[in-house]
Design brief:
Elements: H1 2-10, H2 12-32, E1 34-38, H3 40-49, E2 52-55, E3 75-79, H4 83-94, E4 98-101, H5 108-120, E5 124-127, H6 142-150, E6 154-161, E7 164-166, E8 174-176, E9 181-186, H7 198-222
Parallel strand pairs: 1-9, 2-5, 2-6, 3-4, 3-5
Antiparallel strand pairs: 6-9, 7-8
């Protein structure tokens, strides 16, 4: 029975059906909630002109596709090719976000080159820098290399809702609930830095990591009663 279930999860029909349900649910959440937007006007320039790398933590990715207000720009997310990752990829695709399979650590060479081309074309690359397996809220150095080679700024993104379910997963994933109050925040872009030695790269990595966490903490705080 377990083998049959695993095969079903991996099948195209199951993933298509489930991703359809998930995307429909997320639309329900988005359109029944009252939203506040912060930093969108500042973000206009970076999204319009490109290239740009946007990042957000794995546990807070559910409504990130709804932060795309630039339909003329191609947004490509880096998503792992394992079963859970492909479910995310199919769901994002339904919400108008393209994807490339891979991760910043495993099987990353081909994905890295593909994302470089996305950025060379002045489009947007979306990275979940603590995915697919964590540790939670720890930034993989791959995003720093991508910014360095592409000379693309890194923009943190965050959202929070007043109503949610938090799972006991490694990333403490939050599933937003309908009829919430919500906030979306576009962070200040972190521009590419000079220098290539290990200390400089680590300082850059920590700066990006802190920026994403600080932005998410801000979103959580602002949405509290």
């Amino acid at each position: 029975m377990r083998t049959i279930f695993k095969k079903a999860i991996k099948s195209n029909w199951f993933q298509e059906f489930t991703s359809g349900l998930i995307s429909a649910y997320l639309k329900l959440v988005f359109y029944t909630s009252r939203w506040t937007w912060m930093g969108q006007e500042q973000a206009d320039h970076y999204f319009d002109t490109g290239p740009l790398i946007v990042c957000f933590w794995h546990g807070r990715m559910a409504l990130i596709p709804f932060m795309n207000h630039w339909p003329h720009k191609r947004i490509v997310a880096l998503i792992s090719a394992h079963d859970d990752g492909m479910m995310v990829a199919r769901t994002f695709k339904r919400l108008k976000i393209d994807y490339i399979n891979g991760s910043t650590n495993k099987g990353g060479a081909r994905a890295f080159l593909s994302l470089l081309q996305v950025l060379k074309d002045k489009n947007i690359a979306g990275i979940i820098p603590d995915g697919p397996r964590g540790p939670a809220k720890k930034l993989s150095p791959g995003i720093i290399q991508l910014s360095r080679h592409s000379q693309a700024p890194i923009m943190p993104l965050a959202f929070a809702t007043s109503r949610f379910i938090e799972f006991k997963s490694w990333d403490k994933f939050r599933l937003p609930l309908p009829f919430s109050r919500g906030i979306f925040i576009y962070g200040d872009p972190i521009l590419p830095r000079e220098g290539e030695d290990s200390a400089q790269m680590e300082a850059w990595r920590l700066a990006v990591e802190e920026a994403i966490s600080t932005l998410q903490d801000k979103a959580d705080l602002l949405i509290q009663p």
